[in-house]
Specification:
CATH topology of the largest domain: TIM Barrel
Domain 4Fe-4S: 1-59
Bound molecules: iron/sulfur cluster
Structural class: alpha/beta
Pfam families: CdhD, FeS
Oligomer: single chain
Radius of gyration: 27 Å
Helix content: 25-40%
Binding site for 5-methoxybenzimidazolylcob(I)amide: 337, 343, 367-370, 430
Keywords: 4Fe-4S, Cobalt, Iron, Iron-sulfur, Metal-binding
Protein name: CO dehydrogenase/acetyl-CoA synthase gamma subunit (Corrinoid Fe-S protein)
Number of helices: 17
Amino acid sequence: MALTGLEIYKQMPKKNCGECGVPTCLAFAMALASGKASLDSCPYVTDAARENLDSASAPPIKAIKFGKDSVLGDETVLFRHDKTFYHPTTLLIYVADSLSDDELTAKIQEIKGLEFERVGLQYSMDGVAIVQESGDAARFAKVAATVAEATDKSLVLLSNDPEAVKAALAPLASRKPLIGSATADNYEAMVNLAKENSVPVIIKAEGLDALEELVVKAQGLGYKEFVLDPGSRKPVDTLANLTHIRRLAIKKKFRPLGFPVIAFTTKAEPMEEIMEATVYVAKYASAVVLKTSAKAHVLPLMTLRQNIYTDPQKPIQVEPKLHSVGNVDENSPFYITTNFSLTYYSVEGEVETSKIPSYILPIDTDGTSVLTAYAAGKFEPEKIVEAMNASGIADRVKHRNIIIPGYVAVISGKLSELSGWKTIVGPRESSGIVSFSKTLS
Ligand code: SF4
């Protein structure tokens, strides 16, 4: 159980020097207890106290790193709006070692093709979980090596047989794969294998009581780079397990379950599988293993993940500079919008569809949408004119027309007056741009 602020305070240096960023040792102890400070911020804490306080200052969910750049866990809140979630769910594609060589090649190509651009950000599939279904250790090792050679993605090696994992891991240890699964029957061999190779290991047991018991036993081997698998393959049970583990880790600081959790989809129909995966991404899997690798299936899941794992206090923004869509010239229309990514890319997409090369100037509204920005005084004519002058649009076009979003038609008079340009009120929604653009010529 975690220490309270007062228990931590008893072990602090009590210099009240403020070097940790808060004025007193008591305030620092309170911040430490609530996970809002790091013990490293105090240069005067003794080694003995540091050892005692390690558990209090550790994050409620341990960060586990593996593969290319996958980080699991290290979350501090139950709900995104409490602060933010930090490490997007790692998505992995299930690849059985029972696939034929041709099927394996096709699967790898499909996985490599899972690359997307959305609201200006690039996404690709994070990794591959190679699963032993063949019962043949040599085949498992060969498939793992083939996948590793073909991609630089994070790898998971999954078998109940520690010897099979050992053989597959040997040539791939430098790739730092996640291995598994350690169960009640094999945990000593599997955890020791992970420890010898400094790779994280999945601890798997049916239900939370059994899982806690196994984690404690596994920690007894002197290792704690764990990812948890609570066993159930029924979505309703998996959701309950994921939620209980997260609550116990965050609210109760229950250390045996303070590790990231991996979930496996079970639905055979791809869209049902994606719906199942969305539940696990939302609550609270740090990694999800999927069977489908079709682009049309994976994109909605990645979109959901992007929405959940953006900081709610820092909307995604585009650079507030003049953007060109298509081969613009001196006659190209000139649109104004805000720098909120979703707004900007909705406008850009519709302008592109209109096939009329155009300029778009997103005004810096701190990443808020048009109406929110206007209500907050961030989409005012003075600010727009300032941005227009800084953008150099007057030198790019010979006309003097500004197209503004229909929702802020009210600013058109003042904007014309201040800029000397003619203000044209565009559609309220970006979906109206295509038909609106036909009225421009
Ligand atoms: Fe106390 Fe250490 Fe902070 Fe100084 S730096 S106020 S000694 S906790």
